């Protein structure tokens, strides 16, 4: 079974879109776990209406870990609520390739539903991920991993403030085979770029990646990562 784990905080706008995309998939051997961090909108109500299992959330790392604790699947898919489109047959193709290559952890193409500049940046990024997959794993936004691998590395490090997904992928690659699976790209929202600015956001992630490479995981709020991108503020 596949357990799809989504950390949420006020995601009433995007969550139903993503859950609707999952429901349309031909692959049916899955459960969806929504790890919610005290949303004040209709996020939890929407999740329940779609038949999701609800877990206690926190920051993205905490939410993923809490979701994994109750997951029934032997493979976990950690993903974000604002992914807008899954290609037809995506889950089936992803799982087949994951098993065929005997992977323990994997990432795959995620593209923004944005402008030409966004697509160029992500195309370059994905080429880099493919090129370096054997010696410098990158895993962002969505990660596919065997549950036993997740447990062996102790899950996500909840003290990391940004790029915790990259660190997770690299830790997992130490105990299992990492791979970049060339699926048809998943489309995700550009809300972070629109709220924080494209150049600023891309540059921030570039600098964070370089910092990690030389100094290790980032545990300070140096890069000022924000989890909640809804219009409503958490009380």
How would you describe what is shown here?
The structure is a single chain. By secondary structure, the protein is of the alpha/beta class. The chain has a single domain, classed as Spore Coat Polysaccharide Biosynthesis Protein SpsA, Chain A (Alpha-Beta Complex). Helix content is 40%, strand content 17%. The strands form 2 sheets. The chain has a 7-stranded mixed β-sheet, with helices on both faces. The model has no long low-confidence stretch (mean pLDDT 91).
**Shape descriptor:** globular
What ranges have pLDDT less than 50 throughout 5 or more consecutive residues? none
Count of separate structural domains: 1
Into which percent range does the helicity of residues fall? Answer: 40-55%
Spatial strand order of the main sheet: 3-2-1-4-8-6-9
Summing up helix and strand content along with how strands pair, one would put the structural category as alpha/beta
Q: How many DSSP H or I helices?
A: 9
CATH architecture: Alpha-Beta Complex
| Biggest sheet layout | 7 strands, mixed
What is the beta-strand fraction?
A: 15-25%
- Give the end-to-end Cα distance, rounded to a whole number of Å: 37 Å
Radius of gyration, CA atoms, in whole angstroms: 16 Å
CATH homologous group name = Spore Coat Polysaccharide Biosynthesis Protein SpsA, Chain A
Q: What top-tier CATH class fits best? A: Alpha Beta
Helix and strand pattern: EHEHEHEEHEEHEHHEEHH
Q: Average the pLDDT over all residues and give the rounded result.
A: 91
CATH level-3 fold name: Spore Coat Polysaccharide Biosynthesis Protein SpsA, Chain A
């Amino acid at each position: 079974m596949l357990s799809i784990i989504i950390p949420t905080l006020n995601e009433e706008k995007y969550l139903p879109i993503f859950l609707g995309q999952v429901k349309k998939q031909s692959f049916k051997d899955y459960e969806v776990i929504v790890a919610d961090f005290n949303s004040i909108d209709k996020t939890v109500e929407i999740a329940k209406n779609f038949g999701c299992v609800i877990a206690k959330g926190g920051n993205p790392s905490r939410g993923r870990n809490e979701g994994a604790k109750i997951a029934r699947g032997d493979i976990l898919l950690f993903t974000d609520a604002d992914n807008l489109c899954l290609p037809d047959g995506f889950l089936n193709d992803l799982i087949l390739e994951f098993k065929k290559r005997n992977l323990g952890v994997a990432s795959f193409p995620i593209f923004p539903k944005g402008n030409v500049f966004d697509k160029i940046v992500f195309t370059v990024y994905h080429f880099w991920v493919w090129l370096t997959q054997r010696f410098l794993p990158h895993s962002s936004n969505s990660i596919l991993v065997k549950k036993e691998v997740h447990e062996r590395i102790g899950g996500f490090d909840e003290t990391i403030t940004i790029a915790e997904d990259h660190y997770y992928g690299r830790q997992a690659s130490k105990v299992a085979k990492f791979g970049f699976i060339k699926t048809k790209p998943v489309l995700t929202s550009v809300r972070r770029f629109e709220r924080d600015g494209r150049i600023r956001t891309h540059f921030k992630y570039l600098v964070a990646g370089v910092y990690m490479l030389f100094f290790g995981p980032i545990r300070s709020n140096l890069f000022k990562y924000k989890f909640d991108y809804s219009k409503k503020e958490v009380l």
